[in-house]
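ok so for the tutorial part 2 we go from a plain amino acid sequence to predicted structure tokens. step 1 is just haveing the sequence, like this:
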Amino acid sequence: MTYQNYSLKQLQAIDAAHHLHPFTDHKELRGAGTRMIVRADGAFIYDSEGNELLDGMAGLWCVAVGYGREELAKVAYDQMLELPYYNSFFKCSTPTPVLLAQKLAELAPKSINQVFFGSSGSESNDTALRLVRHFWALEGKPEKNIVISRRDAYHGSTVAGVSLGGMKHMHGQLHGAVPGIVHVMPPYAFELAEPGESDGAFGLRAAKAVEDAILEAGADNVAAFIGEPVMGAGGVKIPPWSYWPEIQRICRQYDVLLMLDEVITGYGRTGNWFAAQTFGVEPDMITTAKALTSGYLPLSALLVGDRVASTMVEKGGEFFHGYTYSGHPVACAVGLRNLEIIEREGLVERVRDDTGPYFEQALKERISGHPLVGETRALGLMGAIEIVRDKATRERFKPAGSAAVVIRDHAIANGLMLRATGDTMILSPPLIWTRDTIDMACDRIVKALDLALADLRGK
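step 2 — the prediction. this is what the tokens look like for a chain of 459 residues:
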């Protein structure tokens, strides 16, 4: 590759001169210089200086089948030679999105049979917001347009995605969100449960916050509730098992559509193809992306339930919405083969029956007792480690998030790529992880925590 003709310093200089990164303090980055990831294989990534890192984040929640899958490269190459691109406008289609849509309908929860393709989770959530409001207008209820979401939710970086999400720092830079979106408490028991409150009772109380918001706005004005089954970027907030069934009951009682954002949890992450199946709910829409192609090419899919789709088809006329790359033939070819790999290798079942339970147990037994750790939690291959200054009181370090960054940097320096979100360390590894890689990750987390404890002592 041509990058091999450049030194790290040269690449860093060019990066600083021309490349604006997502979610980055560019002044800080340009002072420190970027890490150049230059290759990857299986569960590991490698930087330009030859350092090997166990990837605890599956890229960015997405590389489900691991790196270096030649058959994904081959299917993309073959599709590019045959038909690199054609659009889905003008009453046209191409074979691969047609076949992928059929496959997704087979895997999705019952009553979901239609798919709208885009290129990212953010795009897919834009489409979901457009479609849910369009649905109610077609049903003769245009006033039914308020969407309820949660604080600390992440639904993407477009204007609609940021508006749907509940992250204050993102709203502050938006300078005007999409109107008609209401945010309620998240099901985050570690910080929000009352003393002595059981998990089940807390889950019902968090769900009641949604019902209260519906009643305050008036059910005739509320279009939908949107939520990540497990809140990912907000810190792998896993709800109590009582939460989602109660949310579904509430939505059905008040005729409010249920929208699940499974951009992170879709395609095996929680031990089922979709977290909707893990939590036993039947949503009206599911937003997906990331692991759909294992990140090898950009692709998203909004899975649309029969109620919404039938109204759209029978009453809708033209839906004035779409993207140049909706149903991109190469991305869809990779998506089809990626799902085939996940099925062929039994990765969903492995997460459900073996590595998921082992991962949760390993975090609890090896990490939760550390002086810096207030709690560990996991579901499937998603995990969180809460960082505290005092285990008994759960007091945090100040400023908020500062200790987690120290731990993250030690982890990376010792060969594990993981993420710090506020005061929470989060992991979302490739689905190909084994018990051995889980053990390796725990070894490196313990080392990072011990080194950080020495750094933070007295602070």
